[in-house]
Amino acid sequence: QVQLVESGGGLAQPGGSLRLSCAASGFTFATYAMSWARQAPGKGLDWVSVISFDGSTTYYADSVKGRFTISRDNARNTLYLQMNSLKPDDTALYYCARDLGYHNYDYWGQGTQVTVSS
After folding, report:
1. 29: left (phi over 0), alpha (psi -120 to 50) or beta
2. CB of 92 within 8 A of CB of 38?
3. C-alpha 116: how far from its chain's center?
4. For the segment 1-46, what is each residue's pLDDT rounded down to a tens digit?
5. What is the pLDDT of residues 89-111, one digit of tens each?
6. CA 91 to chain CA centroid, nearest Å
């Protein structure tokens, strides 16, 4: 069955960095676009970034553009999110999702918590 398992979250100071990973299994990872989304405490789910099946195309939410980088390793069936210059507003539960296009997602991971605080 399809599984997405996020890791790499934790506590970071403002201005710091974290790298999230999403290990995928149960499907042909290299044929699907993948996205990251996040949910801050008491707020709704926000899309963060998407990457095409081959990694050639990426898009970002304005709130993270220039600070976050999405990437993938299709040989390792793994999706990444490099987060730099972290801000307290980046505090959220981060999810990876299999992306069917037009913000349609059919599988989600369990999430990894990112907390940015001094």
Report:
1. alpha
2. yes
3. 16
4. 999 999 999 999 999 999 999 999 999 999 999 999 999 999 999 9
5. 999 999 999 999 888 999 999 99
6. 13
